[in-house]
């Protein structure tokens, strides 16, 4: 019951920021011969409170089924059509007329993804991307749809030359003048966002000996400090997003926003696909949804609330590649959930976060302190969380939470240093220790994290148990 009360508080505290929160959508892939009809899929989306969907084409059956649903839609001009769209404005105009103008606004198309991860496409379509984007935009203008519908192109993180630490983020030099800068200029001109596909799973799978699983799954962890800018990161997702922001800033495009067009975690994989389990997929997606719907941005861009599209709606049995490729789905083809995660703020109120699997490989060394499951640990305030979150957490801990806050009263042993961060840290830790260091008891709406070294604020000693 104590854990449940704490969880309810977390959600209530987070709800203060919902006016600034991000949005959750899903990718509706259809490389399968087992999926329900498009009409049934739309009903499923509505029943789950999912109000954004991205498809990888502009299939008429899907667009018709979405008509009148109030679900916002992103359609895709496939890579194989980039050449034609780039070379012939008439082709681009015909494509927009047939696949966009014919359905909008009854089907609420809000954006067009021109190609997908073009720079890693084996058919070498990079040179056609910018001309295709401009021709599609001209077509939207001709139908007076350019204000309603924005154009971008999803990038894989492989477009970056550097991504670690985040502050060193930069684009591959051979792409900068050829396509990156022209694309960012186009996005600026049209008021569009950069589409990015982000998969912490790939980074973890290939580096499980140095990346803590907790860090990859957005679970409670001490965080890692970026040696370049001094910012502390508590999850790999934020770090990867900020690497893209840093890469754009290096080219003087700080004003461009980001939309995450794909992210996810597989529920099943081959033997060498470390971390691909149902519990980890549930933990990643559940924690990410909570992270996005409660807002707060990233350490580098704290006000950059994100729209994130989970990959994917269904397991797709005809996809090629490793086992994981066929097991990213949130749902089985029979519409049953692969695992239980909520997709709305309301759903979060009654959802208990999943711990997921334990780390089965050596934890990271040199980049932060790993928490021992059996050793001592403390809960401290996240100084980057902002005054409102820290004060809200402090008020709860010392009030309803039942923390022993007498030592931080004026004249008491832990009053000095008289700072919000120091007082909140003491109160958070008192609450955390009283709850037996239970999972979820050191969160406070993202205002706290666990450390395995004794905190030090002046001469104040933090208790380790009650």
Automatic annotation (TrEMBL):
It catalyses: Hydrolysis of (1->3)-beta-D-glucosidic linkages in (1->3)-beta-D-glucans. Its EC number is 3.2.1.39. InterPro entries: GH, Glyco_hydro_17, Glyco_hydro_17_plant, X8. Residues 1-21 form the signal peptide. The keyword Disulfide bond applies. It holds the Pfam family X8. One of its GO terms (biological process) is defense response. It is a lipid-anchor; GPI-anchor. Keywords: Cell membrane, Disulfide bond, Glycoprotein, Glycosidase, GPI-anchor, Hydrolase, Lipoprotein, Membrane, Plant defense, Signal. GO terms for molecular function: glucan endo-1,3-beta-D-glucosidase activity. This is glucan endo-1,3-beta-D-glucosidase. The lineage of its organism: Eukaryota, Viridiplantae, Streptophyta, Embryophyta, Tracheophyta.
């Amino acid at each position: 019951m104590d854990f449940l009360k704490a969880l309810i508080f977390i959600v209530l505290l987070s709800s203060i920021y919902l006016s600034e929160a991000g949005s959750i959508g899903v990718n509706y892939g259809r490389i399968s011969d087992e999926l329900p009809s498009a009409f049934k899929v739309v009903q499923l989306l509505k029943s789950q409170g999912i109000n954004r969907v991205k498809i990888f084409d502009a299939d008429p059956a899907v667009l018709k089924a979405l008509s009148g649903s109030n679900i916002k839609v992103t359609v895709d001009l496939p890579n194989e059509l980039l050449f034609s769209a780039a070379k012939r404005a008439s082709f681009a105009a015909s494509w927009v007329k047939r696949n966009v103008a014919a359905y909008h606004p009854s089907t609420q198309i809000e954006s067009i993804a021109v190609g997908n991860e073009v720079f890693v496409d084996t058919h070498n379509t990079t040179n056609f991307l910018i001309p295709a984007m401009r021709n599609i935009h001209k077509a939207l203008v001709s139908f007076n749809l350019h204000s309603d519908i924005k154009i971008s192109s999803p990038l894989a993180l492989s477009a970056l030359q550097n991504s670690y630490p985040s502050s060193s983020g930069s684009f591959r030099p051979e792409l900068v003048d050829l396509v990156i800068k022209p694309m960012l200029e186009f996005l600026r001109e049209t008021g569009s966002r950069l589409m990015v596909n982000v998969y912490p799973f790939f980074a973890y799978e290939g580096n499980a000996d140095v990346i803590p699983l907790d860090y990859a799954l957005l679970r409670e962890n001490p965080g890692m400090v970026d040696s370049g800018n001094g910012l502390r990161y508590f999850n790999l997702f934020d770090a990867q997003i900020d690497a893209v922001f840093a890469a754009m800033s290096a080219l003087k495009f700080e004003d461009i926003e980001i939309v995450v067009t794909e992210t996810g975690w597989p529920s099943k994989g081959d033997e060498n696909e470390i971390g691909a389990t149902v519990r980890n997929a549930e933990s990643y997606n559940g924690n990410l949804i909570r992270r996005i719907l409660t807002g707060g941005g990233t350490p580098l861009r704290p006000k950059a609330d994100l729209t994130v599209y989970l990959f994917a709606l269904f397991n797709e049995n005809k996809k090629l590649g490793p086992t994981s490729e066929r097991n990213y789905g949130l749902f089985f083809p029979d519409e049953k959930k692969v695992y239980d995660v909520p997709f709305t703020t309301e759903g979060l109120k009654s959802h208990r976060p999943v711990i997921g699997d334990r780390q089965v490989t050596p934890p990271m060394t040199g980049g932060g302190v790993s928490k021992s499951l059996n050793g001592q640990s403390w809960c401290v305030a996240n100084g980057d969380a902002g005054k409102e979150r820290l004060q809200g957490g402090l008020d709860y801990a010392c009030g309803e939470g039942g923390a022993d806050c007498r030592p931080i009263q004026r004249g008491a042993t832990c009053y000095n240093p008289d700072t919000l961060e120091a007082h909140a840290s003491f109160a958070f830790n008192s609450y955390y220790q009283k709850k037996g260091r239970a999972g979820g008891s050191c969160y406070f709406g993202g205002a706290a994290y666990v450390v395995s070294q004794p905190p030090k604020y002046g001469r104040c000693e933090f208790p380790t148990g009650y």
